[in-house]
Specification:
Shape: elongated
Strand content: over 45%
Number of helices: 1
Largest sheet: 25 strands, mixed
Distance between the termini: 64 Å
Structural class: mainly beta
Radius of gyration: 34 Å
Helix content: under 10%
């Protein structure tokens, strides 16, 4: 058990006696078991304080809420008090702060905090006017207000200063020392002035920091976490209004996590942080509402992120060899702005960092909404290691629901159990999701619906070099095209038609010049390892040149290794010049991705269709449906 000592003061800072002190398990909850001494035997809960205003009790380790009441005195609640951190409460009004929204209280507040290290600094009801940063440099110092509706701090002159900055003192801020077990709760912080920098709460190298029940307005850097460990940020609201004017300052945000630069070129990334039960929203004067530049073990849950200029949340390292790892985001509603000519560009943005050797790894978004964007709900162009988007909803996007590009050697992407709808509703040739240049890609069990008003869009588009992966179990409603494959794709695409335009050539291409007509078409469906491919090849211009050998047409997927030809089908044809060929069969060749052709007629033995059987100029037509076993 630990002893708690407190002091009851009125709004003028005068000591109050004979007040009733009640300790509860939580606000409005049952009375806690407390003790009169560090011994066996409970004390009466609901006791009176002393004539000098003081009170004390013992309690077991844990979190408590302390209620202070007396006729004629406004009932006060001190929430979420950690028994191990309990300390004397000191009032800034008792130190001379006016809290009248007129007098500059900056110096007095700083003096009270400096003179009372490791104590709970109480900000009673009122508006405290400030003109510069207030620093907290002593461990175990907690700033406590009477609630966001009662305690307010206003920054009235500075355009760049933080409101509160928590950090180790002096050289300790860069030598790896951390400021331990500080916090802030129950306050509303706002700025009157337009500004280009400055945070409402700036935490530099803090450990076990706790922010609870805080509201802030018009700070271009919002809550700014630099380095540190084990932070808990909950029950807060952050906003930006048109008091911030002009184009957004680059990297301005309402919540950010950044590495701390220490002595000797060493960096400390924010480690094991939690953010929960929050709402942040701003005008287009904020670059991105949440920016993560570096972290290891950040969990963001149960929140709303609205408006913004370029992105709702951006993951972008700013320092070489830095990393963003083990980031989980769940239960967050990301809400942009769609306009005719301007609006929020992205929901989630992972842009190229341009600093070299930085890593975005093990990032997952689950049960989130991404709504109302100009270009893409989710955008990634960095060589991330592992990115998962699961159980999310993406909708009302003028362009792609998700646009993902990475590295075909390291980037692994999972897109599972999502709903994508009302995307590509303005920008042509976009759609549900496009992926490009990935080492592994899984797009499974998603629902795509109402993806186009332009008539030229697709649910799933594969581009670049996608080395491996699987596309299966997806459903499609009112989509112009389900899957288009313009990639070097070695994974499975199962259960849906996939576009694949065949390519015509010969065993030796030579100077062959051929142009496919608009009617050239290809589409295949894969079920497990069985592929059915419909193709039409119609050349609009054909010059044989020096091409020689067997006529060939490409297949969308390689044929499995067999002891003979993989499969065959009858082909409708035109332009073949060998009069002995009245029937032509296409053959899928074992362990290749091409078909060759065999012609025959009554009384003539079958023979391969070669360059000498095709025109030297003019047109060539081949049409058929072939089913074959592809390589696993």
């Amino acid at each position: 058990m630990k002893k708690y000592e407190g002091l009851v003061q009125d709004e003028e800072g005068d000591k109050v006696s004979n007040a009733t002190i009640t300790v509860k398990d939580y606000v409005g909850g049952a009375n806690s078991t407390i003790y009169g001494s560090n011994a066996i035997g409970s004390n009466v809960n609901g006791f009176r304080n002393e004539s000098d205003g003081t009170f004390s009790f013992y309690a077991k380790d844990g979190y408590y809420n302390i209620e202070i009441s007396k006729p004629g005195l406004t009932t006060k609640t001190i929430p979420n008090v950690h028994i191990e951190q309990m300390a004397e409460i000191v009032s800034v009004k008792g130190g001379g702060a006016a809290a009248d929204d007129s007098t500059d209280d900056t110096a007095i507040i700083q003096a009270v905090i400096t003179a009372n290290p490791g104590k709970r600094i109480y900000f009673g009801e009122g508006t405290y006017r400030t003109t510069g940063v207030i620093n907290v440099t002593s461990a175990n110092t907690i700033l406590v207000g009477a609630g966001t509706g009662a305690t307010q701090l206003s920054m009235v002159t500075s355009t760049t200063a933080d409101q509160f900055k928590f950090s180790p003192a002096g050289a300790a801020a860069t030598d790896g020392t951390k400021l331990a077990q500080c916090g802030i709760q129950g306050m509303y912080l706002y700025r009157y002035t337009d500004g280009t920098a400055g945070a409402a709460v700036h935490c530099l190298q803090c450990t076990e920091f706790k922010l609870d029940d805080v509201k802030y307005l018009d700070y271009p850097e919002g809550i700014k976490v630099v380095g540190g460990t084990l932070g808990n940020y909950q029950n807060f609201q952050g906003y930006a209004t048109d008091n911030l004017t002009g184009a957004p300052v680059a990297n301005s945000s309402l919540l950010s996590f950044t590495e701390a630069a220490l002595d000797g070129g060493v960096y400390q990334v924010p480690y094991t942080m939690t953010v929960s039960n929050f709402k942040i929203a701003g005008t287009r004067h904020i670059d991105a509402q949440i920016i993560v530049r570096a972290q290891d073990g950040l969990a963001i849950t149960n929140g709303y992120v609205g408006n913004g200029y370029n992105a709702n949340i951006r993951l972008k390292c700013q320092t070489a060899n830095m990393y963003i790892g083990a980031l989980t985001v769940s239960g967050v509603y990301f809400d942009g702005v769609v306009a005719t000519t301007s609006g929020t560009v992205y929901g989630l943005e992972i842009p190229s960092d341009g600093v070299g050797s930085a890593v975005v790894a093990y990032v997952g978004f689950d049960n989130c909404d991404f709504a109302n964007y100009q270009t893409a709900g989710i955008f990634a162009s960095e060589g991330f290691l592992l990115l998962g988007i699961n159980n999310c909803r993406i909708y009302n996007v003028r362009g792609w629901g998700a646009n993902i590009a990475g590295s075909n050697t390291v980037s692994h992407f999972s897109f599972t159990n999502n709903q994508v709808y009302n995307c590509a509703n303005v920008t042509a040739s976009t759609g549900g999701i496009t992926v490009s240049t990935l080492a592994d890609c899984t797009i499974t069990n998603n629902q795509f619906s109402n993806l186009s008003t332009t008539g030229s869009d697709t649910a799933i588009s594969l581009n670049g070099t996608n080395v491996n992966g699987e596309i299966s179990g997806n459903t499609f409603y009112n989509c112009t095209s389900k899957v288009t494959n313009g990639a070097t794709w070695t994974g499975k695409i199962c259960g849906v038609p996939v576009s694949y335009t065949p390519v015509l050539d010969y065993a030796t291409v030579g100077t062959l010049a051929v142009t496919p007509a608009a009617s050239t078409f290809g589409e295949y469906v894969r079920h497990e390892n069985t592929v059915t491919y419909d193709f039409i090849y119609n050349s609009s211009a054909f010059t044989l040149g020096t091409a020689t050998g067997n006529l060939q047409l490409s297949l969308p997927l390689s044929v499995k290794t067999l002891s003979n030809y993989g499969a065959h089908c009858t082909v409708m044809f035109g332009g073949i010049t060998n009069a002995n060929f009245t029937s032509i069969v296409a053959r899928a060749l074992s362990n290749t991705a091409v078909m060759t052709f065999v012609g025959s007629s009554s009384g003539n033995a079958p023979a391969a269709v070669q360059h000498s059987d095709t025109p030297t100029g003019g047109s060539l037509v081949l049409r058929g449906t072939i089913t074959y076993e592809c390589a696993p």
